[in-house]
Amino acid sequence: MSTEPDKGRRKALKLALGAAALAADSGLFLIAAPAQSRPAGAAASASQRWGLLIDVSRCADGCTRCVQACSAEHGWRIGGPPGQDPQWIRIVSATDPETGRNVRVPLMCQHCARPPCADVCPTTATFRRADGVVLVDRHRCIGCRYCVMACPFGVRFFLGDNVTDQAPHSPRGKGTAEGCTLCVHRIDEGRQPACVEACPGAMTFGDLNDPKSPIREALAGQGATRLRGNLALGQGVQYRGL
Amino acid sequence: MTAIAFDNLTASPRRLWPAVIALGAALLAGGLAVLVIETQGHHVTGMTNRVPWGLPHVVAYFLILSASGALNVAMVASVFRQKAYDPLAPFSALLAIALLAGGLSILVLDLGRPDRLTLTMQSPNPRSIFAWNVVLYTGFVAITAAYLVTLLDRRFARFFGVTSNAAFIWRFGLTTGTGLDLGILIAREELNSAIFAPMFISFSLTFGLAVFLLLLPAAAWLSGGAPDHALMQRLGRLLALFVGVSFYFAAVTHAFNLYAVPTRSLERFLLFEGGLYTTLFWIGQVLLGTITPLLLVYRGQPIAAAAAVALGALATLYLYVIVSQAYPQPVWPGLQVTSAWGDGEVASYVPSAAEFFLGLGGVAVALAALLAGCLLFRIVPIDLARAAAPRAALRAAA
What angle, 0 to 180 degrees and rounded to 10, lies between the N-to-C axes of helices B196-223 and B229-259? Predict the structure, then answer.
């Protein structure tokens, strides 16, 4: 286990944190890919706020494409004992006992604007990038699991096992915390998160700060809700149809 | 402080060696547990992603709370100028340091990456109560050690006032931070309240005095002595007062949680429907931790009362740490949920042997540190250090 930080990776992450100036964007709005890319090497900027809108009324019975795609993309294992292994995204079946209505809700890191996990992290390993993505610097994480305690949604995980065959774009480390990264390696290239790409139509991803983005247009139409809205965490992930 | 004779603890070999062997075995078992957990990963423990904190954290919180409370006897002597307790001040301070060392050893060795502990000082997060606790804990050890030096070495006696007052203030900061570890967790219904700060101060006074009442006679027993009976009775009555105050906090918070709609189902689970947790509350926290000690103090049995308080303390902390994780979070109000993760269900938590021995190892660290300090330094008042020493050597000014 290396204890020396990857200086290149840390520098890139620090740039993302520290950038205050507006990043020059490409000026293009890609209709096919909702993510608006920025030039390679440009720091993440608060001018963008990545968000995810999930319309649970469109989540088909038995569909687990988002879970399968995320597992394949990041190398975490599906099907372990309940509550044991990390599950970066999971499907929660929610039934209203008064009406019998059932919906299936994909649940992942909510990428809060005011993340409790980042607040409690003693080493700043957990942090919120300027564009709203909540990440973990695996070189700083000491594995105290305080963030797992602090997460209001149960979507922070501790990797308590050795990992093999790691994806180079998504390194994981035994003894550190982890969770959904909103596929930063993809969105920084102008692509969509793996779950959104795999989803047949329930998920919309995009820049919440761009009024012309599909996610903003979708939200403008009918609105959406955030889980545990009373906590006022300002999640980037919102739901419709709950 | 008037001149009081202290001495190294002169332990009877036939009593000391079994204690040393037992502590050694516990330390070894703790070390092996750490080795297994760190090489195999935490999946070998009962701690899961539903219940990431477990028995080691319960024991660690018990030791840390007891640490700040164990200093209380020294504070009564040095800050509140109750000279009858002057002979016990050094032992109290050493005990506080030893207990904190034991609790910290558990927390550090339970980390997923304990090799990175220094990062908490190199890149601390000023918003994190955990990061502040690193400062509070290390500061407590440093300040209490400085205070102890002023008690033991006349050359530094002029610093007695500032160090004793600093220790008194710092210990409240430490316990406040420990309480807020849990209290700031807005995610957890059972926690999420500033009341944890004063409640944990009350708990620390209770648990710390109980541990003091157990370990002072134990140390004296090693040399064949016994603490002054009247002093023990007085401390026993003080313990009863602390038990009452702690029960007040617990009763008010549980009653409030039962009354308030958002926390009512959780509280009903804890009080009536929680199986093991319900048993721990009524038998552990209430019967053992509250009623029994009060009865035993009334009957003039402070040591037995202290033992009951210690058991009740572990039950109390187990309920706060484990139930807050095991009970499902209110993410889906009004909905019934299921998932492969166990959403909506009470999570199962069964402590593993590795966790038990890790906790036991932390207790052994504390006891070993205390024993070593008593043997190596002149900490213990002379009539306890050596059973044959004349009682007149113990001078408590009127």
Answer: 150
